[in-house]
Amino acid sequence: MSSSEEDPTVENWDEYNDALVDRGRLTVWISEGAIEEWKANREPQQGAQWIFTDQAIKTCLQVKMVYGLGLRETEGFVESLFGLMGLEDLPVPDYTTLSKRQGDLGIDLPTSSKSSSMHLVIDSTGLKVYGEGEWKQRIHGKQKRRTWRKLHLGVNSDTGLITAATLTDNTSGDASQVEPLLEETLSDRPEAESSEAESSETALDRVGADGAYDPFDVYDVISDYGATPVIPPQKNAKIKKHGNSGGPPLPRDETIRYIRQHGRNKWKKVHDYHRRSLAETAVYRFKGLMGRFVEARTWENERTEVRLKAKTLNQMTRLGMPKISQTGV
Questions:
Q1: What is the dihedral of CA 19, 189, 213, 245, to 10 degrees?
Q2: What is the spatial distance between Cα 293 and Cα 144, in angstroms, rounded to a whole number?
Q3: HSE of 153 in the Cβ direction (CA atoms, 13 Å)?
Q4: Using CA atoms, how far apart are residues 221 and 207, in angstroms rounded to an integer?
């Protein structure tokens, strides 16, 4: 390797190593605050009484996702854990309660930002719901219809935290979820967990995405939020509003003109387009840590599942991430 080549190195191995260790600590996922808010304090009602708070259900489901447990295994795991902690008198939700309550949970994604502006990057991926494995299909042929969902993520490129997450069926286009992602990113977060929670006053500076988000409607939505679209147009893209037309130029047309004059590579560099890869990194981390499947079988539970996984991934990110530098070798 020549001395002019550069190799990425991690500058904070000690801190990052501690963060990886902390991901497995039970105290991270079952905190004293969760224990204090475990039992519901509500007025008696007709029929079955409300025993557990939403916080208790969320905590159990997060433990399930972090440690790869089934619902019944989660019930037994938390029961044994409470026994070791001397909390035998504290009830544990059974697996049917966890399943029934999951779809009604509201999952916020509080994030942290030290700046008043944000470069948001978005991307989507497929999550398998049910169907046979690839090996079985190859050997025995396809026997059942395969189904999957599309997960759409908005990521703060400065922090790596997921600011918004939506779930759609496999027929929905990526562009249809741009406005919901932007709206959630800038929405209030009443369940913010710390003083570092991102303020609703944070404004979008740029929104980066790949060519799947090239339709004019996407540019209009991003511009309506006061942000600059950083999206590469198709190579055969045509200018819609020429210079002799009235009114301000369209953002997509301006991108096309710049690329024609200076080239696509320079446009990517000047407009920081390569930050978009951080959205792909978030997708990769989501699938690697949270799984490539949606385990729930109802739409409401599926939506809660992916949002709770996104929130869990944010908690892992806050524990610590590697700081990469380029070092000449």
A1: -140
A2: 17
A3: 32
A4: 11
User: What single-letter amino acid sits at 313?
Assistant: L
Angle, vertex CA 292, rays to CA 70 and CA 181, nearest 5: 110
- Reported as a pLDDT band with limits 50, 70 and 90, residue 237 is confident
Residues present in the chain in total? 329
Q: Distance between CA atoms of 125 and 296, rounded to whole angstroms?
A: 18
Lowest mean pLDDT among 185-189, 190-194, 201-205, 270-274: 190-194
**Residue 207 β-bridge partners:** 120, 229
The pLDDT of residue 328 is above 80:
no
Residue 197 bridge partners (DSSP): 112
Please report where in the chains the tokens 């090996």 appear, as a residue.
135
Enumerate residues 6+ apart whose C-beta is below 8 A from 97: 52, 57
Sign of the C-alpha dihedral computed for residues 297, 301, 303 and 304 taken in this order: negative
Q: Is 152:181 a contact under the CB 8 Å cutoff?
A: yes
Domain ranges of the chain: 9-102, 117-301
CA separation, residue 42 to residues 20, 49, 50, 56, 81 (Å): 39, 9, 7, 14, 26
Domain 117-301 has CATH 3.40.1350: no
Residue carrying structure tokens 């708070």: 53
Gap between the Cα atoms of 177 and 171, Å rounded: 12
H or E stretch including 258?
Answer: helix 251-262
Looking at residue 197, what DSSP letter applies? B
What tokens does 248 get?
A: 């301000």
**pLDDT (0 to 100) of residue 257:** 92
Q: What tens digit of pLDDT does each residue of 127-160 get? A: 988 665 555 666 666 655 567 899 999 999 999 9
